[in-house]
Specification:
By secondary structure, the protein is of the alpha/beta class. Helices cover 37% and strands 15% of the residues. Strands 2-8-7-6-5-3-4 form a seven-stranded mixed beta sheet, sandwiched between helices. A three-stranded antiparallel beta sheet has the order 9-12-11, with helices on one face. The longest helix is centred in the C-terminal third of the chain and has 24 residues, at 267-290. It is globular. The mean pLDDT is 95. The protein binds pyridoxal-5'-phosphate (PLP).
């Protein structure tokens, strides 16, 4: 008898995407495990979604023309430079599928966003992880050195999930000068709205200047629409046409399209909420330092605790104190900035734990 159908053999070796813990049914907890916005959508966003629900028997606008136009307007860009998708992770998957054939390599920083190695492998490419440098920062010289004639793309995550560090303008420019023009540089800016460091790389300017730069952005974090799955890429028109041609048809659903447009209409509110999160971040960072902890300089809505082998135990204790955090076994714990009380619950726990000398940055 012929063996039963199976999917690709290599799927058995796919890394598993572990979503942030959710509170058990009926239990209240601060969810600081997925870098979500702690603020619910505004009344205007909710009413746009409710109104659009009346037409759910219809397919959405496949080109998401209204949303693309609104983004183009906000960013002062030609709409031909924007491609939207079902969350920026789906846009990244489309980029990698469109860029790579089996045997191609994709260089990426590690530790970074856990979706990267999965998306690279599913696209049929070979991932080339490059360890982060001191302080949880990208090691861009090592990433440039990892490029071979098989490399099709390099992923840069700034701010980096889960360490929160940014790549500076200077670092980004020397890196781009070292990368061959035929290699795509994907800069994932999921947390760009929380960046306050003036030295951080200006992705939009770099994407305008370098033809091989593609930016990824999302409505999931600063815009607080993680549940609706809307993300986009900014790149030169030729690449955007390729993305539109290869993306899942109707990838951005009708509710996501109207919600994102409504959120774009209240940019001031979005910025005000980001500013509150950034203020909280700075307060939490100062308390951590006061308690003797060295944490990487975060420019995002989360911070990284270098807890090594104690990571899972810490996350369990945090859950007992009512705060869900994201532990990476054997490595560290990522804590999102959320409501003040939730941040304080984690801080209270952190100050009772000591940073082990072994976990301190060497050098
Ligand atoms: C959260 C996150 C995203 C956003 O993904 P969506 O699919 O748009 O929700 C993208 N990149 C990184 C690094 C993230 O942490």
């Amino acid at each position: 008898m012929a063996p039963a159908f199976r999917f690709r053999a290599d799927l058995a070796s796919l890394p598993v995407y572990v979503p942030g813990q959710r509170p058990p049914a009926g239990m209240a907890a601060y969810k600081l495990s997925s870098n979500e916005n702690p603020y619910p959508p505004s009344a205007a966003v909710i009413s746009a979604v409710v109104d659009a629900a009346a037409d759910l028997n219809r397919y959405p606008d496949m080109a998401a023309g209204g949303l693309v136009a609104a983004l183009a307007d906000m960013l002062a860009l030609d709409p031909e430079r924007i491609a939207v998708g079902n969350g920026s992770v789906a846009v990244l998957e489309t980029v990698l599928r469109a860029a790579c054939v089996p045997g191609d390599e994709v260089v990426y920083p590690w530790r970074s966003f856990e979706a990267y190695p999965i998306a690279i492998q599913v696209a049929g490419a070979t991932g080339v992880p490059v360890p982060l440098a001191e302080g949880g920062r990208h090691d861009l010289p090592a990433m440039a050195a990892a490029i071979t004639d098989r490399t099709r793309a390099v992923l840069v995550c700034s701010p980096n999930n889960p360490t929160g560090t940014v790549v500076s303008e200077e670092e980004m420019r020397s890196f781009l000068a070292a990368v061959p023009r035929e290699v795509l540089v994907v800069i994932d800016e999921a947390y760009v709205d929380f960046v306050t460091d003036d030295d951080a790389g200006d992705g939009l300017a770099l994407a305008a200047e370098f033809k091989n730069v593609l930016l990824l952005r999302t409505f999931s974090k600063a815009y607080g629409l993680a549940g609706l799955r809307v993300g986009y890429a900014i790149a030169r028109p030729r690449l955007v046409r390729g993305l539109r041609a290869t993306a899942t048809p109707f990838g951005v659903n009708a509710l996501g399209q109207v919600a994102a447009q409504a959120a774009l209409r209240e940019a001031d509110d979005v910025a005000a909420r980001c500013a509150r999160i950034v203020t909280e971040r700075e307060r939490v960072l100062a308390s951590l330092r006061e308690a003797g902890w060295q944490v990487p300089r975060t420019e995002a809505n989360f911070y990284w605790l270098d807890l090594g082998r104690r990571s899972l135990t810490f996350a369990r204790e945090a859950a007992t104190s009512g705060a869900l955090v994201r532990a990476f076994d054997g490595d560290g714990v990522r804590v999102s900035i959320g409501e003040r009380e939730g941040n304080d619950a984690v801080l209270e726990l952190v100050t009772r734990w000591q940073q082990t000398p072994a976990a301190l940055p060497t050098a």
